[in-house]
Each structure stands twice: as structure tokens, then as C-alpha cells.
Records
---
Amino acid sequence: MLVLKNVSKVYGRNKVLNGISFRVDPKEFVCITGPSGAGKSTLLHLMIGAELANAGSVAVDGVDLHVLPPTILQLFRRRIGVVFQDFKLLWERTVAENVAFPLEVAGAPDDVIEKRVKEVLKEMRLTRRAHTMANALSGGEKARTAIARAIVHKPIMLFADEPTGNLDPGQTQMVLDLFKQIHKQGTTIVLATHEVDIVDTLQTRVIRLEDGAIVRDSIGGYRKGKSASQAKEPTHAKHEIFDEEQERKVKITAKNV
Ligand code: ADP
């Protein structure tokens, strides 16, 4: 469970996020929407521990990301997947090499990597592109490669920032179907998009930001959405992260970090 309490973020004199509070439960699919400049990317960066808030807390199962030592934060980040706005692929590498990368960094054996990469490429309908350079892909294929790389290590949470930004309607639909499929398999998803049509297609919970504040938290899409229940206090004080390299569970309690 991810809980944001009274989070604010300031860049210079620009207050980008102001008093943001909500919670994301396991297996939820949440769309963060709002116009360009509303603070969606900044909010995502805070949720993945890539940026620090100036006030408030961002906690996973009761543990504040801001107080985690860097090594533990790194373990947390290995348990999530992120699709960046510009995909951040390794452009001079093949699709298969891009997707294999997180597993290589985590030290997985070659045969495990080969099997898992094949599986994910099939799931993302990229098998025929396995040996194509990332810079030679279509927009939709780039997006699907970025998603494949983000899920290859079976993350518990997947964050995506405008993943359909420059795609045509056909490619957009394919990417949205893949997110639905990933969600069905049990992954929590947080997707930021300024496109209301996408939010309505997905019919999920929608948090709308305007000028750095939440103006609406509803379920069932945007246009016909109904009000969602307010975020509750965190109930878990302990957090367990699986350290794949050491093959053990790392227990963190709020009081000892
Ligand atoms: P959105 O994703 O909704 O378009 P962003 O989170 O990208 O919004 O940006 C919100 C505001 O924060 C904008 O005014 C933007 O210029 C500012 N901003 C975002 N990142 C930075 C940064 N690293 N430094 C300074 N200002 C930033």
C-alpha cells in the first residue's frame, strides 16, 4: 500500500504540488490526470522515490521512502517498474537487450534471463522485433518495449508517465489493453495521462490534479466517474522487500530506518 500524506513539492519559487494526500491499495489501477503542468510527472517521481518532497510523507506499507537508507531504497526500486515519458530506452541496443537489462543488473543467470525475456516479448507482442534496434522501432513498439522492460522483473507496482503520448489510436488501444492485462495479473498500476479519453477507456479510479492540488478522486473513468472514498491512515508498520541477489526477505520496520 502506497500512502501520500500532505505532500508538497517546490521548485525554486514554484509550488508544484500542494498538500497531496491519497492512498493506493494493492492491485488498484489508478489514473492520475490533469492538464499539462499540473504536477503529474512530479507526483510520479515522488511516488517512486526518485525525488524528495519538501513536506509530507510518501510511505510504502507504513515505511516512509524519504527516510530509507539508499541501499534499501534501491531494493524498493527493484520491486517496482517504471515507464518513463520519453521511454529512456537504450537506443543503440536491440529490443531483447533492453528488456534483459534490469535482470542483468540484478545478477540473474543467463538461462533465466533468456526464458523470461522471451516470455515478456511474447506477452507484449514484440517477438518479431526481438533483434531490432530500439531506435528503429515504431512509436507503439517503443512503448511496448518500455513496458516489457518495466515488467520483466515482475514488479509489484507499475508506474507509467504518459505512455501513449505520441501514439496513433490503434497503437494507443493496444498499449492500454496491455496495461489492463498486466493489471489483471495482479500488478498495481499508477498511470499518468492528460488525455481524458484514455482515462474513460480504462474506467479506473481517477485522481485529477490541477495546479498541484487534487480536485477530484473518482472511480469509473473521468466523465461519468463517481466519488471515491478518502485515503485512510496506513495500518501496516512493517515492510518486506525481496532481495533477489541475496535471495532473502529484508524486513524494515518504521522505527529502525
Ligand atoms: P505534468 O506532468 O502535469 O505536465 P510536471 O510535474 O511535469 O507536470 O510539472 C509541473 C510544474 O513543475 C511545471 O511548472 C514544471 O515546469 C515544474 N517542474 C517540473 N520539474 C521541474 C524541475 N526539475 N525543476 C523545475 N521545475 C520543474
---
Amino acid sequence: MIIAVDGPAASGKGTISKALAKHYHLPHLDTGLLYRAVAHTVQRLELDPTREADAVAACDFDELTLADPALRDDEIGKLASVVSAHPLVRAALLQRQKRFANQEGGAVLDGRDIGTVIAPAADAKLFVRATPTIRARRRHAELQARGAPTTFDQVLADIRARDQRDSSRSTAPLVPAPDAALLDTSFLSIEASVEKAIALVEARRHKS
Ligand code: C5P
């Protein structure tokens, strides 16, 4: 079974995907990490993230980069949304994600274009969302807990800018697949969100 989970930053899609992978005993790929690894490599090599050729050169990143905790930084998230808008960057990372999705036994993948581009024939597709204010509150709390110096207003502005960039790019924009089940986590606890996600996957897989 292939489960595709898409949604904007801090919507809860990562937590939900990990829980789904555990529940169904499936391998999980956080595809955002791939774009973050490209962003981190661009930064490390002092390349220009707005230049497509520079960003493509960084797609050949060292696999060890994927385990670097620095990938979680907000700055890298922002940079990831800049490099991910280049069509050739998306093309460079496409096969790797498709291979993961189509491995024997299935997989759970989360990102922005899983249900639309990477695994259009997924058995279950979820689009996870929450209001920008609530997502900013979650992200702000997370950053504060890590000791990062930032204000709520700054986090909210960043979230809005990232949403705008991810939704308006011409290649693989952040949009729900027409057959995705929508899951709004704005007023749900983590446990309730996971429960609902499992119920939605169950409903979808028995339909096909
Ligand atoms: O999900 P995460 O915040 O780690 O993703 C970082 C950035 O990578 C996103 O803002 C988005 O621009 C990009 N991304 C993407 N397609 C994916 C996953 C992430 O464009 N499948």
C-alpha cells in the first residue's frame, strides 16, 4: 500500500506520516529532507539558490547530509522552498522518490507533490492542513524549545511566504490532489489527528 501525505509547513503531516508508517509497518520518506539537503549543500558551497544550475549541482549531495540536524533549521526550510521551485531540481530528485514509493510492500511519503506527481496512483492520499496562525504557533513553540531566537510574528510571516512560494510555483505546486482526503488539524490533538488519518486511510483503501 502506498500512502501519500501532502500539506504545508507545520500542518502536522510529518507526525501523521510517521504514525501511519508505524501503524501499517511501512517505510517512511520525509521528502522535504531531500530539498533541505539540497538547500544545505547550496549554502555550504556558497552557491546561489536562485540560480537553477547552482541548485541542480547541489542535488548530488552527500548522503550523510540527510542525517545532519542543521537540516531542521528554519533558515534551511526557507532556502529549501527557493531551490525546490526550480523544475530541474525537482526532476533530479524525482526518480529517487518514485523508487521509494514503488518499493515492494509499499511506503508512506510526505511532502508537497506526493499525491499529484510522485505517487499519483497511491492507495490513499491525505492533504493535511491547518490555519497559518495555528501552524505558526506550533512552529514558534518548537523553535523556542530549541532555543532559537525568533518572534511569533516572524514565524507567521515566514510561513505565509513559504505557503505563497510553494503554492504559486509552476512545477508541482502545493495543491491537494483531486482525490485526496482533506484533514484539518487546526483544532485536533496529535492523537486525534493520527486517529482521523488512520480512519481516512482505512476508508480509502477499502474503496479501491
Ligand atoms: O516539508 P519541509 O518543510 O521539510 O519542506 C521544505 C521545503 O521543501 C518546502 O517548503 C517545499 O518548498 C519543499 N518541498 C517540495 N516538495 C516536497 C517536499 C518539500 O517542494 N515534496
